[in-house]
Design a protein that fits this description.
It contains 5 helices and 5 strands. The protein has 119 residues and is α/β, with parallel strands linked by helices.
């Protein structure tokens, strides 16, 4: 799915400064603990979170996550937007709670998910 379709499914607004048209999403990860996000491995992933701090953007960078959606009506601050823009990460925000947002993505066709295999 492209980010416009994701935005429609989540009733989300794309933060204009970070908007890109070339991002395709194949999987999603919903978490408020960045350690859980780091255990998640997929390509072309959307991170959904209610955590609002710059560590979310830094974790997205570390994990090659190209899009982050903030849930429960939370919005990124200027520092987060600047860091995301500098690194090509698209930011979205929705009023939906995390559980409902994940369900709407599933209904829309985002079915992939998983965690890192432990050796």
């Amino acid at each position: 799915m492209n980010l416009r379709e994701i935005g429609a499914a989540l009733e989300a607004e794309i933060i204009p400064e970070t908007s890109r048209d070339d991002v395709e999403i194949l999987s999603a990860c919903g978490a408020d603990l960045m350690s859980d996000v780091m255990a998640f491995v997929k390509e072309q992933v959307l991170l959904l979170t209610g955590l609002i701090n710059v560590q979310v953007i830094r974790t997205a960078l570390l994990m090659d996550i190209q899009a982050v959606c903030f849930v429960r009506g939370k919005a990124p601050n200027g520092e987060m937007i600047a860091l995301a823009k500098e690194n090509g990460i698209v930011l979205l925000k929705t009023k939906l709670p995390l559980y409902i947002a994940c369900g709407k993505l599933y209904e829309s066709g985002i079915r992939q998910g998983g965690v890192r295999a432990i050796d």
